[in-house]
Amino acid sequence: MTERSRRPHKAGNGEDSIYWDKSKNRYIGAVSLGYTASGKRNRATVMGKTKTEVRRKLRDLKKELDTGIKPSATYTVEQAVEGWFANGLKGRDEGTVKTYRSLANKHIIPDLGKARLRELELDHLDDWLEVKARLLADRSLRILISILRRSIRHAMRQKKIARNVAELVELPEGRPGRPSKSLSLEQAAAVLRTGVGSWIHAYVVLGLLVGARTEEERPLTWTHVHLAGPDGAQAQPYVDVWRSVRRHGDTKTRRSRRSLLMSRYAASVMAALKKQQMQEHEGTWDDANLVFPSETGEQRDAHDVLRHFRSLLKDAGFEEPTAWTPRELRTSFVSLLSDHGLPIEEIARIVGHNGSTTTETVYRKQLRPVITAGADAMDDIFAGFLDETFETFEGLDGASGAP
């Protein structure tokens, strides 16, 4: 290409101009938007490797202008992401925001942050996601593209951009996530024999022998732990799993709400914990109190529970306690019931799932009747393993669980 052909064409009033920028090694296209209040010329620009590419971008730019969009040549992906964090996540759970922020700071802003949003192309995102797919699990990849899509959508509402290129990208398959695992019967019995009388022991009992999610245990109050049967119809106590730490206090989904009968051992442990708390807070205690409060009476956070849980595993003789998380108590609950021969359909009902094939994703509402099969099975499963530990609660009424 000759130097003559690269010379900028002098545009007339209101005409577009295309010229070669040697410093950027790109063609620049500009549309005149008149003048600012200070008298400075106001132009919107695009750039490309060829004049044909620039002409196309200029046509797209004019369409944006015709629809009232006020594109900025300097508006970046980072600005869009920060704008969404500032105004698009109001009312969201603090933990969710923290997770999103961490992923954005580690992967989106360093890699794409300086890119001009108007010039972000599908090929750029495809290449970026291919690299990320070799580093991140599927769930993290889905969150990343969700952050980007929602950030650009927010920018569209602010009339910063006319299209959302992130909506067009196809998500590659990421690395497999950390495989879940479950405690063996012997491991579970060892854990249940450890730390008897502590809150973390009761926390483990409720997850392992009743099947409550760890996010459902942390906000649990004594109002939802019934140490007498419902209307006198049940011989054993039960727990209403109706709340979680999620936004608005709902369970994972509306259908996750269920009431579960506690095994005799679980009922005795919970009764002992309640009696202990009543004695410690005589005169200031009521059923609205948290079942597993922190030292200051507040709801425990996930890291605090994790720390105490792993300490309990260490005391129980686990070689690698850091390889386990409280969420795997529920996995162990399902595994132990399955090994015991309980039909998968019944297990799905106990844990609040609507069908065995989608056990971990689809949930059903179960308020009444109180589900009894899990409690009965757990009493059978741990028969003989916990006889010595059960004597700790010998002074309690095992059937009613009353303190």
3D architecture notes:
The protein has helices spanning about 50-65, 75-85, 95-110, 120-135, 140-155, 185-190, 200-210, 215, 265-280, 300-315, 325-340, 345-350, 375-380, 385-390, and strands at about 15-20, 25-35, 40-50, 225, 240, 260, 365-370. The chain has a four-stranded mixed beta sheet with strand order 4-5-6-7, covered by helices on one side. A three-stranded antiparallel beta sheet has the order 1-2-3, covered by helices on one side. With about 400 residues, it is α+β, with helices and mostly antiparallel strands. It has three domains: about 15-65; about 75-170, Orthogonal Bundle (DNA polymerase, domain 1), CATH 1.10.150.130; about 185-395, Intergrase catalytic core (hpI Integrase, Chain A). The protein contains 14 helices and seven strands.
